[in-house]
Write a structure and sequence with these properties.
- 2 copies of one chain form a homodimer.
- In chain A, strand 1 and strand 2 form a beta hairpin.
- Chain A starts with 5 loop residues before the first helix and ends in a 5-residue tail after the last helix.
- Chain A has 17 helices and 2 strands.
- By secondary structure, the first copy, chain A, is mainly α.
- In chain A, strands 1-2 form a two-stranded antiparallel sheet.
Chain lengths: 341, 341
């Protein structure tokens, strides 16, 4: 695409407003003698510390999806900003805690919060960000009806529960020999898809869209999350190393039970035997990835990703997204799902 | 007191209703293939595992305070149950995370959640309980106006932020040589008093009490928390060992910067020198506690506790608590504040 992207233009317009509302939201964490707590949160958001800036801030896809859905569903993106901020905060809450749970030292190229301030402060900072996300959502009251705000609250709290259910399964799976495909999708539905589904649904809710259109937006987010994960699982084994910015067989070496792996294990052939023999070493990974491909793991995952992509795009069309924001949602869906068109 | 306690009778009446609403609340954590997540929460609540039962469940003072305030402010305690459940859940959320942050292996005589299931699952289970608390509060909508539910939500989320601010300071203080009394009170206000203040305020809110009475209930809870902490700090150094069920100089050996200690350090006399010489050994603790008492630390803390107790009881009287529930609140305040009358 050589023409200027509608998404980039929208993001450029919306980001300053998002950032300002985020800034106001986290300011209250510095009350009562706790400026360092605010500093930790600002660091997580990519605003302070070494290498602060756009890369450290992350792409902010989720909050932008909230705003785009609000606009595409016939509302005003600015009225949905408190919901977008709640989404961005809850995403960062989950990153802070996930990084501790996964023992990850790096996030967006910088030391993680627990690495800088220790686990105890990091757990607590995640909790503070969770509380700030809840508070931020209440600011919808300034522009929307009480009924809508309560509805948004119920959806949001349910989404947060879903996030923890997905994470619970993800941690559980690390120590299980066998994980069924059903269990895998339960995990991904919570861990990856739930917040995307909420982002789109709450945008449409803020626009007071009819219930069935809200459901379509939610479905779009849900399938977008599942398709994205299936795609990501493929790239984690067969991705172009330069394109994904990390070793393309890393998922095999790390023993991650991704979609192609689960398919391969169920075949009980050569890949299953290689995997079962113990942790896969770097030098064996290429051979095992070829074996997995020969046994149908790649094709299965690609078929699944394609099917989920279709479901996502169908749900988006059923949501009848309006105007420029609608076009941008289509553009973004295509980008996220690695499609050319 | 030989006559049957009004509090005990009320607790006996209310606990089954609390427990049932708690049970319903945590049931949703077992959805989507996560029964073990529910099991972890039920364990934290004292319902399952070895030595499950009343001791493991804890005293449930906070949720009972919600219900008593609702009744004493002229409402119906049953209408406030979702708020009481939210309070009990958020208390347990903070216990799960505090136990990880403090590296505590035991809670109410049993292994802590992280000890049983590992840190990663425990952090995540705390997060799930946080989400369940938020969801539970929304159930107030069944009996109260939308305006009241939104007001309760704002108070609750602000309280959760205050809890994390208090905990942030508590962790911070462990590695500071100097902590001012102002900083100490900021910590206690968040960590101990904020949830008690919310418990009483939200009870009065559920009863639709006038704003100034709600403030009085909140103040009662706030000062109750501060007075309780000051009292607890005294018992941690000079308590009757049998009465408090732990070593009475434990706080000195553990280097806890409690109210009498901070007073003693500020005097820069013998206690200051003994404390500054390095970690206090068990055999030195008795001598240092005597020194601290001689230098005025005990009297200062007792004076402070008395003053805060007066403020708490005055706030309670200003709240004009009605009927039997009002009498029970007075009884409970007396008990919690270690007063004879």
């Amino acid at each position: 695409m050589n023409k200027p992207s509608g998404f980039s233009a929208f993001a450029e317009k919306a980001r300053p407003a998002l950032r300002e509302e985020l800034r106001v939201a986290i300011t209250s964490s510095a009350d009562h003698g706790t400026p360092e707590l605010q500093n930790m949160i600002a660091y997580q958001l990519g605003w302070t510390g070494e290498n602060a800036g756009p890369k450290a801030e992350g792409k902010q896809i989720r909050p932008l999806l909230v705003l785009l859905a609000a606009e595409a569903a016939g509302g005003d993106w600015q009225a949905a900003i408190p919901a977008a901020v709640a989404v961005e905060l809850i995403h960062n809450f989950s990153l802070i805690h996930d990084d501790i749970e996964d023992n990850s030292s790096l996030r967006r190229g910088r030391p993680t919060v627990w690495k800088n301030w220790g686990e105890a402060q990091a757990i607590n900072t995640g909790d503070a960000v969770f509380a700030l996300a809840n508070l931020s959502l209440m600011n919808l009251e300034k522009t929307l009806s009480r009924e809508t705000v309560l509805q948004a609250g119920k959806l949001f709290h349910t989404t947060c529960l879903r996030l923890t259910q997905g994470q619970h399964l993800d941690i559980l799976f690390e120590n299980l020999n066998q994980v069924s495909l059903e269990e895998y999708w339960q995990m991904v539905s919570g861990k990856t898809a739930a917040l995307l589904a909420f982002s789109l649904e709450v945008g449409a809710l803020c626009a007071s869209a009819p219930d069935d259109l809200q459901s379509n937006y939610r479905d779009f987010g849900h399938y977008l999350g599942l398709a994205f994960q299936a795609q990501d699982d493929i790239l984690g084994i067969w991705g172009n190393q330069e394109q994904i910015g990390k070793s393309n067989t890393g998922d095999l070496v790390n023993g991650k039970k991704t979609l192609p792996v689960l398919y391969g294990l169920a075949q009980k052939k050569g890949f299953y035997e290689g995997w079962s023999a113990g942790p896969i070493k770097s030098k064996e990974a290429a051979k095992l990835s070829q074996m997995l491909e020969a046994e149908g793991g790649r094709a299965y995952a690609q078929n699944t990703a394609d099917r989920l992509t279709d479901l996502a795009l169908t749900a988006l069309e059923n949501a009848q997204p309006h105007g420029e924001a609608g076009d941008i949602l289509r553009e973004l869906a295509g980008k996220l799902l690695h499609r050319k068109e």
